[in-house]
Amino acid sequence: MAKLLFIDDDTEVLEINMKYMRNSGFEVFGSDKAVLGIKIAKDKKPDCIVLDIMMPDMNGFDTALKIREFSDVPIIFLTGRSSEEDKLKGLMLGGDDYIIKPYSLKELKVRIDVVLRRFSKTNAAQMTDANIIEYGKVKINRLEHKVFFDEEEILLTKREYEALIFLSDNPDRTVTFEEIGKKLFGQYLDTDRQTIMVIMSRLRKKMRISEQFSNMIETVWSKGYKFISGKKTGL
Fold first, then answer.
1. How confident is the model at residue 82 (pLDDT cuts 50, 70, 90)?
2. Angle at 145 between CA 100 and CA 163, to 5 degrees
3. Between vectors from CA 135 to CA 69 and to CA 71, what angle results, nearest 5°?
């Protein structure tokens, strides 16, 4: 039974969401305070967190940052604000989805199911040699979701890591914005292109620790990106 944590200062919405998800077969925890919600996240180790952004004691963005200090649990942001800037901020902070109010309980459950399914697939691998990918001084540990250059860990967000893995799984071909969007978000909207460009820009900036490492990902103008596997033995 998957465990869900809802953090929302609107107690009425909180109770409605929790009751619906319990009836749908989930084990559910909840808090109307961000600080308490962070403690519950540490203690109960939920499989997914549904987090409201507009809260008085600590906003959802800051709450997510605190949670990311000790967990990579999937986070779904809830908000009444539909600006692209807020959406980008949520995703760049490690959020896995972004739902704009008002929403239906059925939609919320579907979004939770998609995030849980995607996350469980990522964690399903067993430790084998196939989980360690090496490109010269670059090492990707797929089981631990970590990337190293010359034994020094490169700290990536969940989205940056997923983008790097998806590109490396499709070497030497152009991976389109649509393909990347569907992989990262479960669907693709035209507005997702800017989000993907921001994620890739931040990823490549972190890869600048080595010029050759950075050049492993090429921008294909107006189409997407390409992972250059020929760098595998050249680093």
1. low
2. 55
3. 15
Query: Does residue 111 or residue 131 have the better pLDDT?
Result: 111
CATH number of 3-122: 3.40.50.2300
> Which residues are registered as beta bridge partners of 144?
none
Fold of 129-233: Arc Repressor Mutant, subunit A (1.10.10)
Model confidence at 88, in pLDDT bands (50, 70, 90)?
confident
pLDDT at 234 over 60: no
Neighbours of 181 (CB within 10 A): 20
Backbone angles phi, psi at 224, to 5 degrees: 165, -135
**Strand pairing report for 152-154 and 174-176:** unpaired
Q: What is the 3-class SS of 28-45, one letter each residue? A: EEEECCHHHHHHHHHHHC
